[in-house]
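User: I'm putting together notes for a lab meeting next week and I want to include a structural view of one of the chains we've been expressing. I don't have a solved structure, so I'd like a prediction I can at least talk through. The sequence is below, exactly as it appears in our construct file.
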Amino acid sequence: MRTGVCYFPEHWPRERWADDVERMAAAGIDYVRMAEFAWSRLEPEPGAYDFKWLADAVDLVGDRGMRAVLCTPTATPPKWLLDEYPSVRQERPDGTPLEFGSRRHYCFNSPAYRRESRRITERTAERFADSPHVAGWQTDNEFGCHDTVRCYCDDCASAFRAWLRDRYDTIDALNEAWGNAFWSQEYADFCEVDPPGPTPAYHHPSRLLDYSRFASDSVVDYNRLQADLLREANDDWFVTHNFMGDFEQLDAFDVSADLDFAAWDSYPTLHGQRAPDTPDPAEAAAATVQRGGDPDVTGMNHALFRGASGGPFWVMENQAGDVRAYPYSAEPADGMMRLWAHQAAAHGADVVSYFRWRRCRFGQEQYWGALNNYDGSPDRGLPEAAEAAAEFARLPDLDAPVGNVAVLFDYDSMWALHAERHAPEFDYWAHLRTYYRALRRRGVTVDFVPADADLGGYAAAVAPALHLVPDDLAARLADYVADGGELLLTVRSATKDEHDTLRDELAPGPLTDVVGAHVEQHESLSPGLETRVEFDGDAYGYRTWAEWLVPDGATVVGRHRSDVAAGEPAVVRNAHGDGHATYVGVWPEANLADALAVDVLDRAGVPIGDRLPENVRLSERDGHTWVTNFRVDAVSVDPGSNEIVLGEDTVSGRDLAVVAGPSHEITVERS
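Assistant: Thanks for the context. Below is the predicted structure for the 671-residue chain, given as C-alpha cells.
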C-alpha cells in the first residue's frame, strides 16, 4: 500500500520543480502522475515535439526515489489539431459540435483523431521507453467525463451502422429483435439507421440500448488502441485508466479487460451530494456525509473497481480538500483525507494518489483543492497524507479483499432501466446501494462482478434489478442455485430479454422455475404514499416500486400490508436443487433490506456480526480489518481475541483502527 500525487510541472516555473519534488518525497509519496493534459506542450506545433521538459521532471522524481506515472495526453487535443481536423469534434444529439476551450471535445470514432492519438501515443511512449523512472501509464483521462461517451456525429453514425451489421447480420433480424413494427419504425437497410437524435416523443428503448452498448464499445476499442501501443513500447509498464464514480455510460468491466488494473477518481464530498440515495443538501449541510462523504457511495465504487480489476486497484485521484463542484463545496472535516486513504486501502487499493500537489493559479480548476496552496505553502491535506503514508509503511503487504458474497452489476440492465425509469426516483445505483449498505452494515465483504461471471466460489449472490436476462444467463443462475447457492433477486428482474423487449411469458421469464413465482402486477409509487410490507412477522416500509407476486411453488415470506396491494405476496423464497432463490418485489427501506440480507446470509452460512452503527464500517483485507468511523462521535471497538495493530479501542470521530483479525469477530458500539 503506497501513496501518490498528481503533479503538473508545466503549470509552474522550472525553479520550483526541485523543491516540489523534494517535499513530495519527504511526505512519503511513492508515485507522481504527470502529463495527462499536456499535448500542447509535448507537441506545440504539428510534428514538432518537445519531451525534454517532461523528461527533466521524470528524472527529478526518479532521483528522489519515486516513480513516475505518465499519461497519454489525448483528453485535451490542442487548438492546431482541431483547426486542421475540425471533424474530430464530438457532436451532441442535436448536431451541435463541442468547441475548443475545455476538454474531452473529441469523438472516439473519428478516424482522424484515432490516427492522431496513435501518433502522439507512439512518439511519447518511444521517448520514455528506456526510462528507469517510469512505472506505468494512464490512458487518456476520465473517459466520458462531461457526458462525452455518446457522440452523434457522422463518423459515429457510420460506425454504429457497422456495429449493428456485425451484431444482427441482416436488417430483418434487427427489425425483429427491436420490434420495429411499432410506430412504423422498420428499416429497409442498415444505412437508414441513425444515432438517436431529438424526437417529439419517447425514443425506441431497444435502439437506445444498442446505442449505449455501441458507444461504450467505441471507448473500449479506443482504449485498447492506446494500451496496445504502450505495451509494444515497454511490456514492463503497467497500463491503467482513471474511471469515475457512479458513472453510467461506460462499461468499466469491458474497458478493464485491456488494463493491468483499474483506477478511479474519488471525491467523496462531491459524489455524496450527487448520489440520489444520500441526504439532500439542506440536510447534509449539518450531517456527517457533507464533510466526510457517504462511506457507502465511496465504498461501493471501491468495490466496483476492485471487481473490474479482478484484484487490487488504484485511486488515481483522491480528494485533498474542497472541490469546485456543485451544489456546494464544503471543506472536508479534519482527518478525512487520512480516513479516505485508509478506506481505499481497506477495500483493496494498492496506491492512493492525491489530487493534486498544488492548487492551480489559472484555468477552470483554480478552486480545486490540493495538498498545497497555490503559493506552495502546505494546505490542510498535506500532513494527513504524510500520516497515512507513514501508517501504510507500518502495515504488512496485503492481498486484495476476497468476498464470499457476489453482487451482480449489469450495465445493460442499468441502461435499459434508465431509459424507462417509470419513476423519477428509480435509479440503478441507488437501488444497488440499498443492498450494498445492508451487507456492509453487517461487515460483509462484497465482490462486484459482471452478470456473466462464474458464481461458483460464492456462498450467496445478490442481483439487484437484473432487468435483462438472456436464456444463457438464466441457465447459469439456475445452475448456481441448484448447486447450493443462495440467490437474491429484486424488483424488475428478468422482465426483458437482451434486446430490451418483453417476453411471451410474464416476469421473471426464464427464471420463473428458479423463483417459483411470477409477477402479476407492478406499480411505481410517488413519495408520500403509505407503503408497508410484512416480512418474517415484522412490518417494514418500502419505496418507489412494488410488485404483486403469484407463487408457483414458492413459499410466500412477505406480503403487502397497505393500500390496494394489501394481502398480495411481496417476497417469496423457493428451494431449487440444493439452494434457494429469494425474490423481493419491493424496493426496501434500510431495516427491511437488513432483514432480507441476514435471511440470505444465514442460509448461506456467511459469518456476520452485529449491525454496525450508522456511518461506521468494517472492511476486511487479507486477515486485517479496518474500523472506519465516519461519524462525529466516538465508537468503542471490542476486537475479541484479536490485536489492534493501528489505533486504539476507542475510535474518535473521523478516525480509524486496524485489527489483525476477521471482521465478524469484532464488535463496535457507540461510545
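A couple of points you could mention at the meeting. Residues 157 and 196 are 10 Å apart (CA to CA). The longest strand covers residues 538-551.

User: Perfect, that's what I needed.
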